[in-house]
Amino acid sequence: MGEKAGTGDTAAVVGLGVAAARSGNVAEAEVWYRAAADRGDVDGMNLLALLCEERGGFAEASRWYGRAAAAGDTVAMHGLARLARRDGRPADAERWYREAADLGDQDAMLALADSATDDEWYRRAAESGNPRALAVLGTRLRVRGELAEAERWLRRAVETTGEPFFMAELGSLLAARGDLEEAEGWHRRAASEGHVEAMGRLGAVLVARGRAGEAEEWYRQAAGAGRRSAMSDLALVLLHRGEVGEAEDWWSRAATSAGVEVDHDLWAALPPLDSRALERRERDAATWGLVVLGLLARRRDDVDGAERCFRRAAGVGNAQAMYELGMLLTRWGSATTRATTGTAARRPGRRVEPSSDQPETWFTRAAEAGHPDAMVSLSALHKGRPEGDLWWQRAIEARQADAVAASHTAD
């Protein structure tokens, strides 16, 4: 490479600079970059400008980026945009991004798109096949309810990238509009390529199509890969079948500080259980099973049944049950209140013992056990007082801890 550098091969000169930089000799790297830049090499200009930028020589960096940009180099245009943003000149930054975008630079298109209020630059970047632009554009269209156009872009994303992520997104859109057969096909393709979320989504489609047994297999795969939502859905399928003990194990693994979630649509897609079957599930259920049965009972307006389940689970220290019981008492009052005022329709079943306890009591117990939503409820109850601020801060910390734990699980 040294011989080539001596003959005027600027690429070789830049290579010597790169080698020097990798060995930690920045001063020597600058000598080679400057030699290449003086001979008109665009890469040399950009690398020299970057060295100047990193050591605070912004004026010289701007000069070298400017020379490279004048030669049509989009990397240099990004450098000039970056310097303009640093100096508080957003209009100049946008001008350089636009110039790079007009030359087809996808990163520049995305930089413009991120600061724009419309979809123009996301569309342009998506047209050129940029995966992030395709994902953002598809999401924006779905949120706005423009499903036909969202579908068109998702199909294009699948064709362009072949990524399982886009297959799963297309499958979800199709499932939402009721095209379960094609949705199953896309989720299956994504799942077969190892997309864990698609495995869970495939399970939901299979349940909706009356194939809960096959759905269970996919839920187990996704749950085994650590996806909490799949663990909860698998547990729900097991609870429905009467495998209450194994369901409890999966909910224990899926639980966060806020407890477990219930996919009510999944439960509704399973064959309905009669009252005797539900009573057997409740009789056999342990802590998490009782919480879930309470949530399901509340969804079908069986307030007495929900309170009964929440009280049993709260009695053994379950924080989510304490919180849900507090919410139930806040909205409907205790069994005695409901019986007296008729604030909720009573359902047949075992009698719920009257209670005069207050929601705050249960919120406090749940919050002290680490339940973030209970902390938020206490913050609202004590708004404007130091205690309220303290509970709010604790809720934020609890949710941040859950987010960190979730990221580790995903890894």
Question: What key attributes describe this structure?
Answer:
single chain, 411 residues, mainly alpha, Serine Threonine Protein Phosphatase 5, Tetratricopeptide repeat, 26 helices, 76% helix, elongated, disordered N terminus
Q: What would you say this structure looks like, in words?
A:
The chain is about 75% helix and about 0% strand. By secondary structure, it is mainly alpha-helical. It has a domain at about 1-70: Tetratricopeptide repeat domain (Serine Threonine Protein Phosphatase 5, Tetratricopeptide repeat), CATH 1.25.40.10. The protein starts with a helix and ends with a helix.
Instruction: Tell me the span between the first and last alpha carbons.
Output: 42 Å
Q: Can you tell me the overall shape? A: elongated
Percentage of residues assigned to helices: over 70%
Strand content: under 5%
The main sheet comes to:
none
Radius of gyration: 30 Å
Q: Report the oligomer.
A: single chain
- The CATH top-level class label of the domain at 1-71: Mainly Alpha
Q: Helix tally?
A: 26
* CATH domain topology of the domain at 1-71: Serine Threonine Protein Phosphatase 5, Tetratricopeptide repeat
Mean pLDDT: 90
What is the string of helix and strand elements? Answer: HHHHHHHHHHHHHHHHHHHHHHHHHH
